[in-house]
């Protein structure tokens, strides 16, 4: 949740009990059923109210994104999908966590809530079960035997794997970047300084998106010969044919400015400070590898963009008078993202600050952000029981100490055929080794600019990236930073900008190519 495949969903709890934002007229009472009695026994004498006030209570809440589709998902496969789509049994999950330890840096799960629609009528609200850790204090694992707490963990992880794939990955990078790329190619001359700045971050994005629509995210596509082709994601992730609809629903809350890392951390309650000055941002969880490394990367990217833009835009008026730039941003907002054109958060693009923040966000999303939420899928989820993409059976009752055999456990998660499909798509970055262009690299270095100051700014950016890589290595070697490796001692390197040897792609590519 803070250093894995999807470290961008955790939020600080500011109000307890947890509440749903779903329409009660349609879905009934969807508020959380996690109570103080469930969690205070494992909070070392602290009350829930104290934990909320002191910033010690956190949640990963996928409930409202999953619940509206659960009835339909759990009725799969329908007759037309039999033998192609496996049985689903999915819950909408909330995971409540406590910031523990002497230095308040270790997150410990307190409760997992798994919810289903009411069996009689969705308007009657959710039917929820709350699971808590076994009283023994361990995770309940012995040789070949598990507790229902362990099973609840993987059902919650399945929610996380799906949101990672269809929201934080596909929506926030592939889909949302596409209109930016198209508008830039339509509105900006190839000689325009902003086109030259951003061109490396557009490389192959439209191509990979076209391929993805053909064979990955498509659902039930009828071919000319009458046959039906099911995309890889339709078969291997639990949302199945509803995956793009669920992604589109999430787009209603999409906010370009919030995807700038400092803004995102502050909005989720994980940081405080001035988002325009990343060096002043103070993290609520000091050992939050994604955020710590990410802020280093964000600062390096923004400094490079600011240095570059300062060469060509001496004042705010130069930005406002640039007709090509204004045409680009107008098309991004009013055509490419026309559904949200009237949202109040769009940068006005009438000053240098807006230009720098916008271009830094584009570079961040297409490079470091994409690497952090895409390239970890094989590392962290490739061993499917660690983060299944499908769940198939009801979870036993609320007794957290109930025994679950290994065969029951494995029969509850992604079936073998779908697991192999998931592993193959998650290992996609393997194919890029030796062909990728990394952040700070430009194959056209000799031709991309004749402006000495721009070339010097790029060289300074490369030097800063080397510093960031060194900082990450030092943090990973620090035994006091326990969240950087976890129990299995796999160091967090997804935001290390330099290319590294290994089975899968390492380093941060310039653009979204996989």
TrEMBL record:
Keywords, alphabetical: Dioxygenase, Metal-binding, Oxidoreductase
Ranges where the Lipoxygenase domain occurs: 1-514
Top-level lineage group: Eukaryota
UniProt keyword annotation of Cytoplasm present: no
Name by which UniProt lists this protein: Lipoxygenase6
PANTHER family per UniProt: LIPOXYGENASE
A GO biological-process term: lipid oxidation
Alphabetized GO MF terms: metal ion binding; oxidoreductase activity, acting on single donors with incorporation of molecular oxygen, incorporation of two atoms of oxygen
InterPro entries according to UniProt: LipOase, LipOase_C, LipOase_C_sf, LipOase_CS
């Amino acid at each position: 949740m803070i250093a894995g495949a999807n470290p961008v969903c955790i939020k600080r709890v500011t109000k307890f009990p947890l509440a749903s934002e779903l329409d009660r007229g349609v879905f009934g009472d969807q508020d959380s059923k996690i109570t103080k009695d469930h969690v205070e026994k494992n909070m070392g004498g602290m009350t829930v109210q104290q934990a909320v006030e002191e910033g010690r209570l956190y949640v990963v809440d996928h409930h409202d994104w999953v619940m509206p589709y659960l009835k339909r998902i759990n009725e799969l496969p329908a007759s037309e999908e039999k033998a192609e789509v496996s049985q689903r049994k999915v819950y909408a999950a909330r995971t409540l966590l406590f910031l523990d330890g002497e230095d308040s840096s270790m997150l410990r799960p307190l409760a997992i809530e798994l919810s289903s629609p009411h069996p009689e009528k969705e308007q009657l609200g959710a039917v929820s079960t709350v699971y808590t850790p076994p009283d023994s204090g361990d995770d309940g694992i012995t040789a070949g035997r598990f507790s229902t707490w362990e099973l609840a963990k993987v059902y919650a992880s399945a929610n996380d794997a799906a949101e990672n794939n269809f929201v934080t990955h596909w929506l926030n990078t592939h889909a949302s970047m596409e209109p930016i790329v198209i508008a830039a190619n339509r509105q900006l001359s190839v000689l325009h300084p902003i086109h030259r700045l951003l061109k490396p971050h557009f490389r192959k994005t439209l191509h990979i998106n076209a391929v993805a629509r053909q064979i990955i995210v498509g659902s039930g596509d009828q071919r000319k010969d009458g046959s039906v082709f099911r995309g890889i994601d339709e078969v291997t992730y639990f949302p199945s044919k509803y995956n793009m609809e669920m992604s589109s629903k999430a787009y209603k809350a999409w906010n370009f400015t919030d995807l700038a890392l400092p803004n995102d951390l502050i909005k989720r309650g994980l940081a405080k400070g001035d988002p325009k000055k990343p060096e002043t941002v103070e993290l609520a969880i000091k050992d939050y590898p994604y955020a710590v490394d990410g802020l280093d990367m964000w600062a390096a990217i923004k400094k490079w963009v600011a240095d570059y833009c300062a060469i060509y835009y001496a004042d705010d008026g130069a930005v406002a008078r640039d007709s090509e730039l204004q045409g680009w941003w107008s098309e991004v907002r009013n055509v490419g993202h026309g559904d949200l054109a009237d949202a109040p958060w769009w940068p006005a693009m009438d000053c240098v600050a807006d230009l720098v923040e916008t271009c830094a966000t584009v570079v961040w999303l297409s490079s470091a952000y994409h690497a952090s939420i895409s390239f970890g899928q094989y590392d962290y989820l490739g061993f499917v029981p660690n983060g299944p993409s499908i769940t198939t059976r009801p979870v036993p009752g609320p007794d957290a100490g109930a025994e679950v055999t290994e065969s029951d456990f494995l029969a509850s998660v992604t079936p073998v055929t779908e697991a192999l499909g998931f592993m193959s798509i998650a290992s996609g970055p393997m194919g890029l080794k030796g062909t990728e262009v990394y952040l700070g690299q430009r194959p056209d270095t000799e031709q991309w600019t004749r402006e000495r100051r721009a070339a010097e700014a790029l060289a300074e950016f490369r030097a800063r990236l080397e510093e960031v890589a060194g900082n990450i290595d030092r943090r990973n070697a620090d035994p006091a930073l326990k969240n950087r490796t976890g129990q299995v001692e796999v160091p967090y390197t997804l935001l290390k900008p330099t290319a590294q040897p290994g089975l899968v792609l390492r380093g941060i590519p310039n653009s979204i190519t996989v």
